[in-house]
């Protein structure tokens, strides 16, 4: 972009950076409005400059676009679904349709507006509702009446009808605001308290239109039939329907000239020469007087909003009980124009000392909790956990939040100032902070890199860049220091927060001396110079969860909630369990079965995780992510069944894995299993704060329903609800950890093969599977779908050596046994299924993969 904020006037493609987003602009001198010679570059200039007042009326609403790629004199078309080539940073939300689900774009920033203009989306149409937090359409927050002049009537006639409607609406306690539509008529908007459904609002609007028609039949019609509109103004009340949209305020129109849906004042509507406004006139009006429609927008301080970027912040605080600023409006402040955005770093002496980094963005402070503060050197990365957005007033807040309130503790400003933004993507933010003169920060260029999750509770790495924005080496800064460190200061050595063992300390018993498992995984020298050891394989046994329904888990979470009253829920990752033992130099991985799987995942074990020289034993899940970033157990099959080094080297780049950590067994040679989960988690986060690459610590949810909703929305396997006070019980299945599956899966033992027919002749057609019981291997049915060609080949290699003449099942039906090839029941697999029949047979079973980490005796029926 040019220094004056306008796009370059050139026909050659231009790659520009807008608010940290990279965007390719093309054909900027292409004329879109021939009557006025208005080019695409001028359209982009308009949306860039009008954005601060236009975005408030778009944010949170699905946008239906009307596009004119070849200008307004050529054919146009409506676009609902965001095109496949749209930048990944353009936010989108799905809405089901009879023809399939469509992803609608959401406009919340300038780059998105510019992208839509680049695609010649001149008209932006939105409904009268915003998305609710669960992704469904919310209740309408405004009523709209579209006053459309029929043949023989004028815009002045529409203004007369608007005044009649205003009188009625004011009598209902609603204050309407007018917009000349940029086409022929006038739109009237009135803010609503979101207490009614779209159908109810539509009914009110219809009755209002009928009442005006009854009083003024000579000029007003409320019927849809076009034949009735001659010489009258049609009051279109139907746009309040949840499926209908209206041209957004400040949107251009695809007419002969670049008219705009322009907000007006009631005084202007009294002008007999009232006309539509052109885009340059709207820019001048806003520069001089601001937004007449402000009470409808998300920055309207006079109107509370139930949903918006500050909804989570407000829900956690009571303004009568905390000195923190608690705005009535959940939708933030006006975006600042013409100056650099603000930042603040606050030192927060809460239950755990940490620093809060807050960056101004779209009228709120996007916030991260940083346990170790701003990294003072380029050689380390600090963990940052995204929290809820904070109001802009928080940039000046210092004070003590009372005990019992959210975030209780003392908050002081460590440093603040302005920042320069280079890039803002969903997974990477590059920026340069410049603190107060003489302050502790100085000028520093940083990058935030998202490692897991999205939005609140997502985890990031905060890194000090080696060079400044000009490419010059960036010197180290002063280490972050607190004025008075709490007893549980996360900067303290991890071992110092584990009480030394005494005769009364609980400890999991190790193997008897002389047993084959007595040998240790490794021995290393601790920082203090004493020899420490990592537990032997017999102690590297994972704690297991008990299956539960959402209701049972929800009630347990309520009972287990800690002092802060929040439950503990984690994502149930669709991968393989792995205990990681770090000896100060090497990470060893063991499966649930005890098998060493270190060599299978070199990207996890061939690099330094940044955990320091002391031994650590962690618990976690190895996952492979699909193209949408979701864990995929079938995809992980490409890795977990490989054994030859050359196969692993070839497949690792094609199917990379991640290691999600969620618990800690020992640290610095001391057993942590007897500590409560909440304390183990604190230790884990402090140790793993410097982890880079594919090893991370996913966030914990403090709302069970939110965790379930998120898992269902993103197609995850489910959640695990845990007692934050639970100890770690090695190798035991505990009811203090409850797993809730959203997709029903079942581990099974393979006992037979039915040969394929037709095109599958000579290979596996289906598998006969069972579940162990006290009487033997109980038959659970056939699995004939879900196999890739590679999976069939792998199963044939695995099962052929296990062929036997004896059926391993105790109750297989004769029809299924008629052509079966039996195998020894040594191999465990996993299937998805719809339900169990009364006879214990899996219905609609689909193959997911082999489970080499499980033994047949580990298989139990899922609840």
From TrEMBL:
Its cofactor is Mn(2+). It is an enzyme of class 6 (ligase). This is DNA ligase (ATP). Pfam families: DNA_ligase_A_C, DNA_ligase_A_M, LigD_N, LigD_Prim-Pol. GO terms for molecular function: ATP binding; DNA binding; DNA ligase (ATP) activity; DNA-directed DNA polymerase activity; exonuclease activity; metal ion binding. It catalyses: ATP + (deoxyribonucleotide)n-3'-hydroxyl + 5'-phospho-(deoxyribonucleotide)m = (deoxyribonucleotide)n+m + AMP + diphosphate. Residues 492-503, 521-533 have a biased composition (Low complexity). It comes from Microbacterium thalassium. Residues 650-773 form the ATP-dependent DNA ligase family profile domain. GO terms for biological process: DNA recombination; DNA repair. InterPro entries: DNA_ligase_ATP-dep_C, DNA_ligase_ATP-dep_cent, DNA_ligase_ATP-dep_CS, LigD_ligase_dom, LigD_PE_domain, LigD_pol_dom, MtLigD_Pol-like, NA-bd_OB-fold. PROSITE patterns: DNA_LIGASE_A1, DNA_LIGASE_A3. The keyword Thylakoid does not apply. Its EC number is 6.5.1.1.
